[in-house]
Amino acid sequence: MQVILKDPEYREIQRVARSRHMSIAEWVRQALALARRGEPTRSMGKKLEAIRRAAQCEYPAGDIDRMLGEIEAGYTAGPHP
Predict the structure, then answer these.
(1) Labelling 80: which of 30, 50, 61, 73 has CA 20 to 30 A away?
(2) Sequence-separated (6 or more) residues with CB below 8 Å from residue 14
(3) Containing H/E element for 25?
């Protein structure tokens, strides 16, 4: 892969790479890996279909007011030993 950068951009990337004790190539590989991790791995349609299927199921759940009360009581009880 070839990426054309203006001199100031290249020098900045070079400076950052050196400060991390790595080559520019390694810094670029890590930056690209980080960018890839931020991208969705599945299509939006597949995600929505999974949510729709899950919403059709019945799961055990307690009374919402009771659950919220228990959560609040846990906050006010303080740390446990």
Answers:
(1) 61
(2) 24
(3) helix 24-37
The two tokens of residue 80 are: 């446990």
The answer to whether the CB of 13 falls within 8 A of the CB of 24 is yes
Among 32, 31, 37, smallest CA distance to 16 is for 31
Evaluate whether 44 touches 52 at the Cβ level (below 8 Å). no
Taking only the tens place, the pLDDT of each residue in 43-57 is: 888 889 999 998 898
Q: Cα separation of 12 and 6, whole Å?
A: 10
Taking the C-alpha atoms of residue 42 and residue 54, their distance in angstroms, rounded to an integer, is: 17
Helix (H) or strand (E) holding 7: helix 7-19
